[in-house]
Amino acid sequence: MSVEYKKTVILPQTDFPMRAGLPKMEPTLLEQWQNDDLYDTIRDISKGREKFVLHDGPPYANGHLHIGHALNKILKDVITRSQQMMGKDAVYVPGWDCHGLPIEWKIEEQYRAKGKNKDEVPVAEFRKECREFAQKWVDIQREEFKRLGVMGDWDNPYITMDYRAEAAIARELGKFLMNGSLYRGSKPVMWSVVEKTALAEAEIEYHDHTSKTIHVRFPVVTSSVEALSDASIVIWTTTPWTIPGNRAISYGEDIDYAVIEVTETAEECWAKVGEKLAVCVDLVEDMCKNGRILGHKVVGTFKGRDLEGGIAAHPFRGQGYDFDVPLLAADYVTTDTGTGFVHTAPTHGPDDYVTGLKHGLEVPEMIDAEGKYYDHVPLFAGRFVYDANGKEGDANETVIAKLIEDGALLSRGRMKHSYPHSWRSKAPVIYRTTPQWFISMTENGLRETALKAIDDTRFVPEAGRNRLHSMIANRPDWCVSRQRAWGVPITVFVNKKTREPLRDQAVLDRVYAAFCEEGADVWFTWDAQRFLGNDYNADDYEQVMDVLDVWFDSGSTHSFVLEERPDLKWPADLYLEGSDQHRGWFHSSLLESCGTRGRAPYDAVLTHGFVLDGKGYKMSKSLNNVIAPQDIIKKFGADILRLWVVSSDYHDDLRISDEIIQRHSDIYRRLRNTLRFLLGNLSGFDEAEKVADSDLPELERWVLHRLSKLDDLVRETTEAFDFHQLFIELHNFCAQDLSAFFLDIRKDALYCDAPTSLRRRAARTVMDRVFDSLVRWLAPVLCFTADEAWRARYGNDSSVHAQTYNAVSDGWKNDALAAKWEKIRKLRRVVTGALEVERAEKRIGGSLDAAPKVYASADYVEALNGLDLAEIAITSDIELIAGDAPEGAYRLDDVAGVGVVPALAEGEKCERCWQILPDIGAHPEHKTICGRCAEAVDEMGIAAE
Question: Where, by residue number, does Zn(2+) bind (predicted)?
């Protein structure tokens, strides 16, 4: 009876399945982590190590996670896990923003649906409903984040509506109050008529909007320019409703202006023949075209600086607008559009306000919270700019009609342009002057401190530095007040006589203590005297009922998270958010920290792009191109989503689609197969089998060199937060260096060599090291799969996430050996290409059928000296010939000096290893196998019967 040789082949053995089944496997592993208290175990192991703290920018607790959340949290998790693997104590504390308009808006919507009026509901009851709504979504989002594989202190997150957090936020505001930076002033702020509150720049988004445009005459009263004595200055604006707020006209000192006399007009033209109009020289033709002026002549020219001291009249003079309109120089006047003269309404724009402040102009309050003119506004009282639904009111048309009636309108038109809208209601906003609370950018040098802090911060990518720098350099004072109910109140008392805020630390301390015990609701329910104590009479003070801008909340998180939690540190090593947070969280955190601590709360800032669909379009329900992370996880698993994050260049916008995810699923399958091959062929491997480095064959030593170089790259890219580059290198290592080269070559030895053969033991020794390093390197990204593979080898009581990156020996580096094997791989590529042609032509069935002749130049022959080229090329035999290949030999254009002439191997096919060799039948006990296989079978104690 003969041996069944196929059963003597040492095939891979592993319980690590080929098919991942991630949607089912991942929840099981999550439960295992929870049961093992893995996060706390890692913290215990890491005590005493250098800390790495990525401070979590708080997402908003008001809905299910979208793909942008997934990108952000996965990237944070990859960074935190990789820093942990670097041997640090990488603590991650997740957090949530819970105050603010979006949640308040949701509760109001519920009220409106029930026919209830929010203003009739006690504020404490309303705030309680907001709190419950936020808590519900915190709990939902927590589970969704955990399902992404994000590891953190989920049992102890920070939440801005927690009592101690609210107290800390109020305490931080108190610091600005006490140092004199906080003040109340009337300035133009962006105002949402729909939400009835001031909005921060971060709450604004820009959309196309069609505005009414007008050219308006302002008659000149006095001027040193003789040509203006009986002329009108012409302004142009896209906001006709702001004309009642006009208090000046701005010009550019170096701009060239002309006075033209109208000589001919079209029908239905509001210009009059003989009248004189002043306009920028470069914009005369444009104004005439819009005003249907067919003919004109220039009667005078002058420089803008010649206008100094001039006075014009308001178009509605004699009807409640009897003040002078001074002509004032301003550096923001341009000649791109309009007339070169800027209608200046200090109550309706930041540039206008600054000009008015500089020259002592009146800053009247013109528009109320509902978007209509106050009763005291002559001619237009009660007219709406926008209504409660964000639709255009009657203010524009009423103003235009009055301008026509008074002969002041020169032309009207329409223009489509980018215009600010509320990010919540999507309605247009207006600039409105109203009393608000501001933090000064200049009082205590906040701007200069913040700019220096930017210089001292590391930005990834570097372009983020300039973006944030320009925002801080040019921003106005920080408006921190909101006219809403759900938020941390502005805990300030204002003296009714002096109108000065009360600055008393004892009062602030009582507020802080009360908030710690009962939350910020007490500001609205307690009697004011309890806060003021015995030193002040509540009747003498106005208690401010505005709440803080939610960006002040999130900007203060460093104070009650990083500083107060013993497991963290201040400042954070890293803040990481989307690129929009240069005007959001990075911005507000910088200002808050610089204003109270003199430096940024972070050492580094990393930004990522936005997620677009596969065609590069922004995701929206209307386009039906929204891809939910929950759907991807349900179908493919979270590891595929994590793989998508790191395989993309997340510094730019990322694209995602079903096809892209499927492509990453295929990439994942190849990585998994590599891990499975390693596991299967390491079955039973132990310390006794290991081969010393000095005894390893060249091929194995080349693999160790690659491990060493990759280890350098892993550490470099981890510190650079460049996981895109790392993923490319790790994927190429698995696909090209391992699967297509080293493991491909060594498969024969692993399966067919005797168990004690040096070649097989050496291969397994190196595979052991490859597995141990590779799984650790992949663990921050493929957190589920890497841990599954680790447990498959080391048992369920061990987790890869409790490990660190391996210490790699510098002795493994061998650049000369690497260069030699790079040359060998080039030659092998030519041989492989030649055999592929033979296989395609069906002249061979596989590479073991071949025994090609390889012609190579001397350098290739020297590189292969002492090596078995047949083993490397996976052929049964091969002949290496020094010299030029004959005509017709197979060549590759990019590998000079190598040619291959295919030939068939001679001999019989070994029943065990399938090589075609001449010694088949020469072994009496094993007549159908080769000598190498016969020795292996004998060693295994199997004899023919």
Answer: 910, 913, 930, 933
SS3 of residue 29 by DSSP: helix
Over residues 78-124, the pLDDT tens digits come to: 999 999 999 999 999 999 999 988 898 889 888 888 888 777 889 99
Q: Give the count of beta carbons closer than 10 Å to the beta carbon of residue 930.
A: 28
Q: What's the angle, vertex CA 201, arms to CA 199 and CA 203, rounded to 5?
A: 60
Q: What are phi and psi of 277, to 5 degrees?
A: -130, 135
Confidence of residue 650 (pLDDT cuts 50, 70, 90): confident
Closest by CA position to 564, among listed 174, 180, 181, 162 = 162
Chain Cα centroid distance, residue 361? 43
Higher per-residue pLDDT: 200 or 277: 277
Measured between alpha carbons, how far is 17 from 19 in angstroms, rounded to an integer?
A: 5
Is there a contact between 229 and 276 (Cβ–Cβ < 8 Å)?
Answer: no
Same domain? For 741 and 873 the reply is no
Write down the H helix ranges in 779-907.
Answer: 783-794, 815-840, 858-863, 869-873
Closest by Cα among 346, 428, 342 to 385: 428
Distance CA 373, CA 395 (A): 8
State both tokens at 811.
């002795």
Same domain, 256 and 390: yes
pTM: 0.86
- Residue 598 inside a domain? The answer is no
Is residue 252 within 8 Å of 331, Cβ to Cβ? yes
Other residues' Cβ atoms within 10 Å of the Cβ of residue 648: 23
Count of Cβ atoms closer than 10 Å to residue 318 Cβ: 9
List the binding residues for ATP.
Answer: 621
**Total count of domains within the chain:** 3
Is residue 199 within 8 A of residue 192, CB to CB? The reply is: yes
Q: Is residue 233 in a domain?
A: yes
Is 788 in the same domain as 841?
no
Residue 808 lies in a domain: yes
CATH value at residue 693: 1.10.730.20
> Is residue 8 a contact partner of residue 912, using CB atoms and an 8 Å limit?
yes
Provide the CB-side half-sphere exposure for 546 (13 A, CA): 22
Domain span including residue 766: 11-17+660-813
Residue ranges at the known binding site: 577, 621, 910, 913, 930, 933
- Give Cβ neighbours of residue 747 (< 8 Å, ≥ 6 apart): none
Query: Closest by alpha carbon to 501, among 538, 543, 529, 441?
Result: 543
- What are the tokens at 640? 């595929």
Final residue belonging to a domain, choices 431, 460, 492: 431
- Report how far residue 454's alpha carbon sits from residue 465's, in angstroms, rounded to the nearest whole number: 7
Position 787, amino acid: D
Do 278 and 410 form a contact (C-beta atoms < 8 A)? Answer: no
Instruction: Check whether residue 312 and residue 395 sit in a common domain.
Output: yes
Question: Residue positions in the annotated binding site for Zn(2+)?
Answer: 910, 913, 930, 933
Numbered residues of the known binding site for L-isoleucyl-5'-AMP = 577
Q: Are residues 328 and 412 in the same domain?
A: yes
